Amino acid sequence: MAAKEKRKLKDLNLLDKFLFDEAMEDEENKNMKTLLDIILGQDTHLKQPPQTEKECRSSFEKRQIRLDVYTVDEDDVVYDTEPQKTNTKNLPKRSRLYQGMIDSRLLPPGCIDFNLLNPVVIIMIMPFDLFGYELYRYTFKMQCEEVPELELGDDATRIFLNSHGKHPELVSRELIELLEYMEKSTDAVVEECESERIHQMHERINRLKSSKEMEIKFMQKWEEKEMERQEAYAEGERAGEARINKLIMYLIEQGRNEDLAKAAANSEYQAKLLKELGL
């Protein structure tokens, strides 16, 4: 298996998970504040530096998830912000899982006053249109089907952002510039931006990219991911070989020599036999 081509830190964009996490984890909260202020059109005051890859699980035995960037503001609103470069075809339901896992950790054990649950905002930022309506922003809140103007009032909001929207009249110019910058975090894109906040963010991102310490951290992270990828590939190869060996032994034991020869020459027929025999 060929090694995946290695990217350089200076070539990363804010939609790349490594750069996004490192940029949003700044101790002064400037990048995270800028991001939330522009997306939500508000003046956000964070309680503490954002946490990256925050582990969330309801018990040790159950499934864990890692939230990309998790933070809380002075009004106790919880924010989970996630860049998503690939359409995995499950993002709406993944956001539902994130919502449930976050909620499960907000109340202390034994507390039954659900009104103490924090407001939660989940934000996913993507370079593709998840819903096909050519919008830059899709905001979802629970509401009544029979009375559309009646909201449930559970303080849960999920926002899906699309950097390729086509209706600028529905959002601020600054949000469009931010989305374009996140997809292509370059000097050329910033030169076209009117937003002073994005220019300032770009200066901070450039300092991050030029850091030797960050370059080493990125290299180590890449090597870890590459080793995991190659190990997973090798494990898949071993599992595939084991299935083929079982198929060969079965066909020999059953005296199905014609099927054996055909399976050896035709991968589609081989796959058909493996499915047929539950291998």
Architecture overview:
It is globular and about 75 Å long. The mean pLDDT is 89. Helix 8 packs across helix 9. The chain starts with 16 loop residues before the first helix and ends with a helix. The chain is 44% helix and 14% strand. The protein has a six-stranded mixed sheet, with helices on both faces. The longest helix is centred in the last third of the chain and has 42 residues. The protein is an alpha/beta fold.
Give a nutshell description of this structure:
With 279 residues, this protein is α/β, with parallel strands linked by helices. It has helices spanning 17-24, 30-40, 91-104, 173-183, 187-191, 196-209, 212-253, 257-265, 267-276, and strands at 51-56, 65-72, 78-83, 120-126, 137-140, 156-162.
Task: Set down the secondary structure blueprint.
Elements: H1 17-24, H2 30-40, E1 51-56, E2 65-72, E3 78-83, H3 91-104, E4 120-126, E5 137-140, E6 156-162, H4 173-183, H5 187-191, H6 196-209, H7 212-253, H8 257-265, H9 267-276
Parallel strand pairs: 3-4, 4-6
Antiparallel strand pairs: 1-2, 2-3, 5-6
Helix pairs in contact: 8-9
Features:
14% strand; six-stranded mixed beta sheet; 279 residues; alpha/beta; globular
Shape: globular
Helix-strand makeup class: alpha/beta
Distance between the termini: 25 Å
Helix-strand pattern? HHEEEHEEEHHHHHH
How do the strands line up in the largest sheet? 1-2-3-4-6-5
Q: What is the percentage of strand-forming residues?
A: 5-15%
SS summary, helix count: 9
Number of strands: 6
The main β sheet shows up as: 6 strands, mixed
User: In percent, how helical is the residue content?
Assistant: 40-55%
Report the uncertain regions. none
Mean pLDDT: 89
Alpha-carbon Rg, integer: 24 Å
